[in-house]
Design goal:
Pfam family, one: Pep_deformylase
Strand content: 25-35%
Distance between the termini: 31 Å
CATH superfamily: Peptide deformylase
CATH topology: Peptide Deformylase
Bound molecules: nickel (II) ion
CATH architecture: Alpha-Beta Complex
Strand order of the largest sheet: 1-2-3-6-7
Order of helices and strands: HEEEEEEEHH
Shape: globular
Structural class: alpha+beta
Function: Removes the formyl group from the N-terminal Met of newly synthesized proteins. Requires at least a dipeptide for an efficient rate of reaction. N-terminal L-methionine is a prerequisite for activity but the enzyme has broad specificity at other positions.
Protein name: Peptide deformylase
Number of strands: 7
Number of domains: 1
Cofactor: Fe(2+)
InterPro entries: Peptide_deformylase (IPR023635), Peptide_deformylase_sf (IPR036821)
Radius of gyration: 16 Å
Length: 182
């Protein structure tokens, strides 16, 4: 297993359209393992292959929700999920706000509106097909990750004013990080 480099905006690779995974084989499963390791280490709850420089329609996710839903400090439960060649078959007309972040836009958060329910189809790491109705954070996170497959970042959903603010904060944080490291 290996930690993979996470590409950050404005790297042009993040704007590429990912291509379908042709065959779910051992090579793909090895990449999935590395992607999980990279995502947990970051730490994050979702990671698309393009974020580690591989523009394939593959993403990993683990919401790591607290054991006790009433206590956010309780131990996070690991529930790894793999989505290969995911498709959204239908979505509700009702949009809800959620404060999103992204490992490719480090430490920046903003509210994004998305449909609260989706019906999705995907392959798992064994090539088995799944079709399911998803809602809540799972639906939000899958939509966010699937945006990556189209070269879209969550900041693209914001107004220009809001997006510029986020990018300014990101530039400032990078500068401070650079100064500290120097
Ligand atoms: Ni992201």
């Amino acid at each position: 297993m290996a930690l993979l480099p996470i590409y950050e905006t404005p790297d042009p690779i993040l704007r590429e359209i990912s291509t379908p995974v042709e065959k779910v084989d051992d090579e793909v499963r090895a990449l999935i393992k590395d992607m999980f390791e990279t995502m947990y280490a970051a730490p994050g709850i979702g990671l698309a292959a393009v974020q580690v420089g591989i523009p394939k329609r593959l993403l990993v996710m683990d919401l790591q929700e607290p054991e006790d839903p009433d206590d956010p400090e309780s131990k996070p439960v690991r529930e790894p999920r793999v989505f290969i060649n995911p498709e959204i078959l239908a979505h509700s007309d009702h949009e809800v706000p959620y404060t999103e972040g992204c490992l490719s836009v480090p430490d920046q958060y903003a509210e994004v509106m998305r449909p609260d329910k989706i019906r999705a189809r995907w392959l798992d790491e064994h090539g088995k097909s799944h079709e399911q109705d998803l809602e809540g954070l799972l639906a939000v996170c899958l939509q966010h990750e699937m945006d990556h497959l189209e070269g879209v970042l969550f900041i693209d959903h914001l107004s220009k004013l809001k997006r510029d603010m986020v990018l300014k904060k990101l530039a400032k944080a990078r500068k401070e990080r650079g100064l500290r490291a120097a």
